[in-house]
């Protein structure tokens, strides 16, 4: 059974966390640690949403589009989390930390590309929709991630060799979620929905 209560609750929380991350990005006082934590929390919330809808019917209507939306936003959140994680790792003084930073930033760039593909699939799936111009957190990531990843590779070129760079991205920090969704019961279905025609 689809856990709509968890799904709806998490989507509401995600809107709040996304706004917080946007405000942190715009604030010169917000640290990288704060931005990373918010981005990592978004990954966990989107993961919970994804886990709560495995039995969602996708054969007709909005089901398939909903699943594509969740995939799109989940990988976009991963892109943000690996981006800020990579920047923090790059502040370390060891060769290992710089190598892990490169791996994290490369993962961020790959997740960003995947999110663009998922976004295109979402908007192309009936009922079709227009892809909006990136804004807020997404615009920031689209502008920063490709530049930052290539810049770090150039700066640490001596570390960037197949033998020395870490292939797999380092794991993201596992922060506990600051908020949890409250239980929510959907209202009963109106009997009119069971009729073939709204005029009956």
TrEMBL record:
Protein's name according to its UniProt entry: BRO1 domain-containing protein
Organism: Aegilops tauschii subsp. strangulata
């Amino acid at each position: 059974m689809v856990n709509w209560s968890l799904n709806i609750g998490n989507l509401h929380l995600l809107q709040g966390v996304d706004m917080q991350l946007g405000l942190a990005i715009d604030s010169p006082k917000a640290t990288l640690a704060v931005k990373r934590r918010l981005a990592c929390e978004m990954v966990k919330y989107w993961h919970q949403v994804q886990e709560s809808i495995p039995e969602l019917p996708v054969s007709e209507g909005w089901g398939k589009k909903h699943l594509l939306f969740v995939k799109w936003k989940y990988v976009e959140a991963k892109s943000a989390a690996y981006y800020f994680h990579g920047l923090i790792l790059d502040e370390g003084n060891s060769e290992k930390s710089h190598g892990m930073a490169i791996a994290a930033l490369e993962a961020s760039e790959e997740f960003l590309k995947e999110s663009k593909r998922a976004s295109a699939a979402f908007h192309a799936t009936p009922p079709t929709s227009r892809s909006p111009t990136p804004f807020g957190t997404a615009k920031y990531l689209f502008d920063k991630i490709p530049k930052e990843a290539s810049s770090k590779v150039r700066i640490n070129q001596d570390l960037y060799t197949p033998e020395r760079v870490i292939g797999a991205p380092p794991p993201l920090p596992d922060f506990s979620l600051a908020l949890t969704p409250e239980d929510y019961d959907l209202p009963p279905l109106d009997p009119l929905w069971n009729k073939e025609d709204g005029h009956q």
